[in-house]
Design a protein that fits this description.
Blueprint lengths: L5 H6 L8 E4 L7 H22 L1 E5 L6 H9 L4 E2 L19 E2 L9 E4 L11 E8 L3 E2 L2 E5 H11 L1 H10 L1 E7 L13 H5 L4 H10 L3 E4 L5 E4 L6 E3 L5 E3 L3 H7 L11 E3 L7 H13 L2 E3 L6 E5 L3 E5 L2 E2 L5 E8 L1
Parallel strand pairs: 1-2
Antiparallel strand pairs: 2-16, 3-19, 4-19, 5-17, 6-16, 6-19, 7-18, 8-15, 8-17, 9-11, 9-14, 10-11, 12-13
Helix pairs in contact: 4-5, 4-9
Fe (ii) ion binds next to loops.
Length: 325
């Protein structure tokens, strides 16, 4: 199947064409052919990804964790493992690279975010594969981080500039043991890859976090100031963070944002500013309605992602791989 390069100039920076969709025209029938096709067209595909931030591959012969691992491997990205990350979601590995997207219950919405942007270590690429779509709902929501920035700086120039210059601090509560009932239930032992409280403190110190121990051996940790707006190569500015996910999805934060979020200079983020971010993001979001076998590749700096709640008998199974360029 030819990759039509004239698509590229049309699609650059064009909100109307987000995400890019590449459908198999039937000529790629086996996994080996898919790998060959990707290898041959890698340069324009990566260029496209660097422009629009997300590509959906539909109709390719990818059916399980193993074939997805092979399909994604053809992109040649370096591996970013869940184990080495500081992600606070509970996940299960299927292959060394492939793991479940999030073990949160089906009625829980995962609000949009850049992957692991609440930590100093994050992947530059996140890919999702739908092995089995839900009966109803369960769309992956994606939206462009550069568009959000452009709209936010128009709506709230002073606060947006402040956010850019001082950054953001996140405070998270990590339980002693994994709690799969929430979207952020990974234990501090798992999150920090440590076995004891002493090791946890040492790790937090090295990350420049501050912390407090709570009842039931839970740990509350606050990051150092992390960038919330980044400037990419070529000058594009992007809204790159977990602010919306924390505000709407973390327990008790909507009611009292200061429990999880503050500017990097410790001043408060107003609800008005947070609500503006939410409404802008909603207005530019795209709901990716999964079909079995779909693979999405998302540039983590250029696009945010989330997950809508779902229902029905069918088990929704969406798997993830992280990569670095
Ligand atoms: Fe995510």
């Amino acid at each position: 199947m030819p990759y039509t390069s004239n698509m590229l100039s049309d699609l650059e920076y064009n909100q109307q064409h987000f995400p890019t969709v590449i459908k198999n025209d039937g000529s790629v029938q086996t996994l080996a052919q898919a790998e060959q096709w990707l290898a041959k067209n890698l340069t324009p595909i990566k260029k496209e990804l660097g422009c629009t931030g997300a590509i959906l591959f539909r109709g390719f012969p990818v059916c399980d964790a193993k074939s997805y691992d092979a399909f994604f491997s053809a992109f040649g990205y370096d591996n970013f493992t869940y184990k080495e990350s500081l992600s606070n979601a509970v996940r299960i590995n299927h292959t060394e690279k492939v793991f479940t997207a999030n073990e949160a219950p089906k009625d829980v919405e995962i609000f949009i975010h850049n992957e692991m942007a609440q930590t100093p270590f994050y992947p530059s690429i996140i890919s999702l594969f739908c092995e089995s779509a839900a009966d109803k709902g369960g769309e992956t929501v994606i939206c462009r981080s550069d568009t959000i920035y452009d709209e936010l700086v128009k709506a709230e120039p002073e606060l947006t500039n402040k956010l850019e210059s001082v950054g953001i601090k996140y405070t998270t509560l990590m339980p002693c043991d994994d709690d799969p009932e929430t979207g952020q239930g990974r234990s501090w032992k798992g999150t920090l890859s440590v076995g004891s409280a002493e090791e946890a403190e040492e790790k937090l110190r090295s990350l420049h976090y501050t912390w407090q121990w709570k009842d039931n051996d839970a740990l509350v940790a606050q990051t150092a100031a992390l960038p919330a707006i980044r400037t990419l190569q070529g000058g594009r500015k992007v809204f790159f963070n977990q602010i919306i996910a924390a505000y709407l999805g973390w327990q008790g934060v909507k009611e009292n944002p200061a429990t999880a979020l503050c500017f990097g200079d410790d001043s408060e983020l107003s609800k008005t500013f947070l609500d503006t971010m939410v409404s802008i993001a909603k207005s530019v979001s795209y709901n990716l309605e999964w079909q079995d076998g779909d693979v999405a590749v998302v540039h983590n700096h250029l696009a945010m992602h989330g997950r809508l709640p779902y229902s029905g008998e069918r088990k929704r199974k969406v798997l993830v791989v992280l990569g670095r360029e």
